[in-house]
Automatic annotation (TrEMBL), chains A, B, C, D, E, F:
It comes from Fontibacillus phaseoli. GO terms for molecular function: glycosyltransferase activity. The keyword Glycosyltransferase applies. CDD domains: GH130. This is Beta-1,4-mannooligosaccharide/beta-1, 4-mannosyl-N-acetylglucosamine phosphorylase.
Amino acid sequence: MSKIIGESLKNMPWQEKPEGLNAPVWRYSANPIIERHAIPNSNSVFNSAVVPFEGGFAGVFRCDSRSVSMDIFAGFSDDGVNWNINHEPIQFEGDEEIIKREYRYDPRVSKIGDRYYITWCNGYHGPTIGIAYTTDFKTFHQLENAFLPYNRNGVLFPRKIGDYYAMVSRPSDTGHTPFGDIFYSVSPDLTFWGKHRYVMGTINGDESAWQSKKIGPGPVPIEIDKGWLLIYHGVINTCNGFVYRMGCALLDINEPWKVLARSRNYILGPETLYECVGDVPNVTFPCAALTDADTGRIAIYYGCADTVTGLAFTTVDELLDYMEKYPLEA
Amino acid sequence: MSKIIGESLKNMPWQEKPEGLNAPVWRYSANPIIERHAIPNSNSVFNSAVVPFEGGFAGVFRCDSRSVSMDIFAGFSDDGVNWNINHEPIQFEGDEEIIKREYRYDPRVSKIGDRYYITWCNGYHGPTIGIAYTTDFKTFHQLENAFLPYNRNGVLFPRKIGDYYAMVSRPSDTGHTPFGDIFYSVSPDLTFWGKHRYVMGTINGDESAWQSKKIGPGPVPIEIDKGWLLIYHGVINTCNGFVYRMGCALLDINEPWKVLARSRNYILGPETLYECVGDVPNVTFPCAALTDADTGRIAIYYGCADTVTGLAFTTVDELLDYMEKYPLEA
Amino acid sequence: MSKIIGESLKNMPWQEKPEGLNAPVWRYSANPIIERHAIPNSNSVFNSAVVPFEGGFAGVFRCDSRSVSMDIFAGFSDDGVNWNINHEPIQFEGDEEIIKREYRYDPRVSKIGDRYYITWCNGYHGPTIGIAYTTDFKTFHQLENAFLPYNRNGVLFPRKIGDYYAMVSRPSDTGHTPFGDIFYSVSPDLTFWGKHRYVMGTINGDESAWQSKKIGPGPVPIEIDKGWLLIYHGVINTCNGFVYRMGCALLDINEPWKVLARSRNYILGPETLYECVGDVPNVTFPCAALTDADTGRIAIYYGCADTVTGLAFTTVDELLDYMEKYPLEA
Amino acid sequence: MSKIIGESLKNMPWQEKPEGLNAPVWRYSANPIIERHAIPNSNSVFNSAVVPFEGGFAGVFRCDSRSVSMDIFAGFSDDGVNWNINHEPIQFEGDEEIIKREYRYDPRVSKIGDRYYITWCNGYHGPTIGIAYTTDFKTFHQLENAFLPYNRNGVLFPRKIGDYYAMVSRPSDTGHTPFGDIFYSVSPDLTFWGKHRYVMGTINGDESAWQSKKIGPGPVPIEIDKGWLLIYHGVINTCNGFVYRMGCALLDINEPWKVLARSRNYILGPETLYECVGDVPNVTFPCAALTDADTGRIAIYYGCADTVTGLAFTTVDELLDYMEKYPLEA
Amino acid sequence: MSKIIGESLKNMPWQEKPEGLNAPVWRYSANPIIERHAIPNSNSVFNSAVVPFEGGFAGVFRCDSRSVSMDIFAGFSDDGVNWNINHEPIQFEGDEEIIKREYRYDPRVSKIGDRYYITWCNGYHGPTIGIAYTTDFKTFHQLENAFLPYNRNGVLFPRKIGDYYAMVSRPSDTGHTPFGDIFYSVSPDLTFWGKHRYVMGTINGDESAWQSKKIGPGPVPIEIDKGWLLIYHGVINTCNGFVYRMGCALLDINEPWKVLARSRNYILGPETLYECVGDVPNVTFPCAALTDADTGRIAIYYGCADTVTGLAFTTVDELLDYMEKYPLEA
Amino acid sequence: MSKIIGESLKNMPWQEKPEGLNAPVWRYSANPIIERHAIPNSNSVFNSAVVPFEGGFAGVFRCDSRSVSMDIFAGFSDDGVNWNINHEPIQFEGDEEIIKREYRYDPRVSKIGDRYYITWCNGYHGPTIGIAYTTDFKTFHQLENAFLPYNRNGVLFPRKIGDYYAMVSRPSDTGHTPFGDIFYSVSPDLTFWGKHRYVMGTINGDESAWQSKKIGPGPVPIEIDKGWLLIYHGVINTCNGFVYRMGCALLDINEPWKVLARSRNYILGPETLYECVGDVPNVTFPCAALTDADTGRIAIYYGCADTVTGLAFTTVDELLDYMEKYPLEA
């Protein structure tokens, strides 16, 4: 059995795997947990990130307004299922040039030491990766953007690797990017970034077509005894648009750009009405995971059809076994 | 409180706003009111236009056949909800060159004096704006096309403005047009058109992204004490296609190309299954509105997913308040 | 009344036409008959082909795996409705160069003499038409690919025509082909193909827009006293993607590239949730038909939303009458 | 022999047809007549229009600046070959909303009565047709734009036809338009336009592929005893871009939307270095013609490679004979 | 030294390699040998094919007319440099369905036994490979099209290989095809084609980018002691369009789909004005080669800028040495 | 008069401005200075960079091979006009992962202290900015790539600004990028990069259309008493492809992301045959500049039509005056 390197989290949301289910990830029975109109002026609440916080849970939420303006909001929960989301978006402190808002979306939250770092897709003459930190989810200090445009889906590792802060991200273009690989970058200070390494890319041909158009990192990587467990999204381009599904990979613990294992099969994809029908049909997009080191349990928070937020469950062993059973050979 | 300049219409369809609803427009509880197979050979009945007529209601309906041929049909109703639509499309009288049918779709009906004018997207070596009138919804006299190709969504004002008939329209291209602004044009005689003025266009950036790809006029503008109240459609381009929503604007009463107010928020968008699932998913497309001058009530008829017809309600004050609460600052 | 030239098939699946239905084809009341997870590792089971076999039924099924790898699988059924599909894909015997698998999808099965010929879209440096035969659905002998790339939807006639084996197919390109016409080709030996003839193409303009973007053959043509009855798919390109519907045509019995009649109306299109919602929304794609010569009954197997398999019923007379009632005049 | 209905113009530029030339149009031997740097800040001087004026010639010239800003300039010449072009663009008087400049290009000049009307592609929230008049080429009075966007190449007939001013034009889209047909429109007053008629379009297939992508009117139509002689441009789309050539057509004298004859062959195309090499290679684009009623001579002014201005010669009989020899049968 | 397996041809055109030239192919000093207006109504004479014939030379020429209609014409020459091309295109005898002309272009001529076979890109509801034969270049017998659409550049080997006629070709799409590989097909009778084998494709990445977009066969393969020497075209896609260059390959003598050697470097590309400037800039496109078995000399006929015809020289040893010096390792 | 902050360079190439020339930059009279076949296996030698070196000049040259493989080569010259370029590309020393070559092109050379830093477009799973240094142009030490893909045109400033090395670059996509702005980034150590600032972008509309599609930095910025003088390239998209021209800007000396002045007019564009005709027509692309502090002279090296290398002259005052005369007001 594999072990999560981390803390125990007894109160994390959980349901047991349904009898007879032939899949490594299962949905929460009362999905979606957050509806599109969860706050007064929201059109949709989806790609969002949560962490344990002061005995309960806190999070940063993507709420598109009814003008379809994209911003990120703080929220709080006792049980990780029922959420109170602030009605006003996060205000940042920092360098005036940097905190100017064009748009903000698809946040992740990574706790490093006693700081909660938020990363997100930040508009700065094109999409790039914004970084900020908070200790209380009230005051947020914004740092330099990590990269030049154009980039989306920057996800910080939960600790330094070697001497460096580490991030995986997906370089992109200015629009509905028709390509996407995952890269690894490091920084001594969260300001200057370098030593960029290619981690993995799309899979050509038929072997694993669900991830043939683009892939990008999802939740903060989970440290386990065997390496870093990365849950990511993969996209196929059908004649009727993109389908977003989830997969997982195991990265080397010290050199995370080395891929030790990777799922040939997706681990979750759009099947329910709330995943298949909405503002952008056929999207399941993971942005956060809660884990319990005692049990190996994982709770995945994911956006559904770019409209609502879903919750799904798995364990470290389920994912590792599944990668082993359906290994990617390409 | 604002006032509609017009007639009272005591028998218009109406339902009160649901308790606690946080939105300016609400759906009819028994939507859709017209199903896709409403007449024997129809594939779909959607973007359609209705008016009060002889104590009840008459209308012109877009019915696509099961060969997916697009034409417009007359129909009648006592209550504005239950409709009898003719099984054969409208036949027009007029100049032989003009009445030749290529295709016809997306009608509007505007009563000016004692004539009911129908405008629609008319195929004439490309889409342009067809015009015809009737007094009885039995005999229809077709006039010259208003413009050169390519144009869609021509909507006549319900009275002359100054010395001229007036129309708002959306110039387009030959296909699934990736742009679209609203222009204002006038005519002394409904044959010759000129004095074209730009009214308003799409909104770049993040402030009001639901109307970032194209916009076009919907129902006949409603005259109120403060100007012309225009309900229009706006489109965003997602990675999985266009989403059509509704917004509103207030235009100057004498110079309607001057925009006095405009909604930053959409007022209705695809959320129900019948709006999100159908031949063209995620479309809510308004083509007509009934109004009651006594109460300020408005009933909007709109196409759903290019498949069925829906009905929704609001009031003049709801719309004006909403524009004031969520003003467009761009 | 028209007659099917063929065998009787008393045990074929059947339901009577619902009262009052105004359409030539009706759905099985318990659709879909095959779910997406019908075998342990399947993501979807859809465009598939069945034939009578040893008193019951056998078939070849497209099952996309949960890595979204496309392959074809044998399966068996007593009643044509409940199916046992093998968990491993078909293995082929034959020339080593030819049996190398890139991908395989959208099979058809045609019985000629005592052999069951399978044709499918076969990856060989691009999509082309693979051919194989079996007598027992256990051992499959693969022959030469019929054509150069790029081609999809090769369908064999169920007997020689003149001295030749005969096939209809749809030449394509390397991607989500934006065009598609049906051609007829013959072969003395199933290895060498020639005498290619254009059969029919898309319909421009408004007369029959559901088949304006591409068309391709569906089930094995049905021999009737008046010619070959061909059920085919037609595609329209909307602003939100392709919609796949079904139509039918009557081809000359000896020179099948001559079209005697063709449906202006589609005979079935996406309307139910399982046809409108899935991995590729709005797809109904027919690949096989069972027929009973005694009664003229036809049971159509069709893929739904590229996700599940549906069953629908009609008769020869329903289709011929419908083509006569809604003739294509272009 | 055909006759030009018009004035004699003894001093128009002229060279005799070269011996043995097998083509209906021949180039001026000292082409190009206007170089790209003809005025101090010009990048290029090309699609331009000239008329007889006060015993010599005047014209309106498209000069793109070295910032590649597009504007139109007045110019004067004694002999029609050597030109003095003003260094500052034309300033217009008129309605403030209308004279606001976005961009201006591709002018034509048509004398009607004692006024010289200039039409051009005028930026007004998209390209449309600007109209202005002058009597002295010093003061220019701008009228309403003729049409809604999007249109290019509006060309006025040199007299009223019936009771109306008449114009041929080419509706377009917002970019490098991939389509283009010629339409006819009329106006009682040059402000309101209507009664739009399709004149002619592109030629599909192989019969006349040089005009398979788009066509548009060139110089002011020439009145002859047999009808209106129209010189126009036609475009083919090669794998390396558009090629612009010239053709001609004969339109009915009273109903000019009726095409009496049309050239299957182009009459001039890019062959010389100054036509094949420049800012936009392979463009010959006619915008004006001088004619002499006494002799039937025609001098065509045309843009070369969007960079310089060329001059070419022909006669009415050359063009009519060529259309008769190479008739378009489509 | 390598040997050509074939006949001697003492009177073939020839010039010695210029001193100091560092390239395997050199141009004829008086290029182009055929001008665009070589026959009365031609716009261009380019991709054309020649063979020895009755002591002199005959050929089939692509002449686009001044309507830019594409057809093929017979022509004759005493010296292979100065050509008399018929003024009317070739008329074919054969099956009525087959000889209907849509368009014809890019011919090749291959002598097999005492027949001269012409293959070309033939319009039959899309481009495919037409085949015909003649013995006298006066009467031409057209056979079945070799393949389904869409295909261009079908080139027959000059003798049977094994029991079969053999052809290399390039499957394509309907337009300016953005892909292209070379395939090998055989036929017992020139009517039925099969046993299709992939020969070689484009080269991704940077190693040999001139052939990164598409490749296709050029002249009839030349039999040498080491195999078949194939001269082919390769295309790169620049931001300003396609550039067509020539390369060569050595194919196995009995299994020509096996590539023994292939040039990494192009052997000729657009450099001169007549290759870089014309209707389609930057095209050098080889369609025929004359060879002399006594000396190993090769004369290549190639289209220049889709406008004129050029001639270039090389030898078998030059090409083999060049492939050896610059081997393709991909 | 403005002053260059730098060294004197008495032996730099120079020609006086031609009499009467109305432009700020003039071509060397014997252009091009480097032909396409300058080294044995080159197809083209163009976007290249030179610096003063040991009393003469050294440089790094983009030479595409005759396989159209892109690499960079060292070269040497006594006079800056006649060049000896090495026949083999530069070999780099460094981290094994980094020095793996995919492709290399468009180099710049910037002397900082006693090191010559080369930057170029470096293939690493997409184009990014490679960095290396040399002191002798024999041994080259490659450092980390500066950024994640996708980026082109990284240009180092010739000294630290504040505490940091500084670079301007153009983020891009994977292909023929249809957008392009200039950004500024800094690094403490040439390995880690951050503090990215937007400098300037394309100009919409008509004011300065030559730079409406993309812009990117050219030579190493020139330090003058008023700031940094940046020569850059700008691109317009015509219907026949991109046209690349040159402009200039003045950046703040300490905060170079602040633009003090910028040319509305281009300063040089394609006009001569060697600029308009070649592998990519209509390209003038500057990559290096020599300067003499004593006289203010500037010699610009630029690629012509992606085929040959040109040389042009100007002075600091010419450029500053021209920006002042034609200021960009957008």
